[in-house]
Amino acid sequence: RCARARSGTAGERTADMSSSIEPGTPGLHFLPAHALAKKIRSREMGCRDALEVYADRLRTVNPRINAIVTTDLESATTQSDEADRRVARGGPVGRLDGVPMKVKESLDVV
Hints:
Number of strands: 0
Shape: globular
Number of helices: 4
Mean pLDDT: 78
Low-confidence stretches: 1-25
Radius of gyration: 14 Å
Strand content: under 5%
Structural class: mainly alpha
Order of helices and strands: HHHH
Distance between the termini: 43 Å
């Protein structure tokens, strides 16, 4: 089964999944990438759900720290849905397939 319930916020939807996260850990977004990838491959969590957790965190924290200048959440959503379909089909997936990530830009983008 793939966790894809659509009621509530991403944080509320993943609250029941947090039992596998060590007590005292502030949230799913602090999991190591390999642990999140394992949750995705095992269908314990959907790629789209993981993206929503990270996007919620970005919307909460970034206005204060301004670390992320450019985002493309529309494309990320499309890609996470594609990754969810690959996982659901049982097809080959990469080690970090479906894990949200940000590549920090080191050059000006025009």
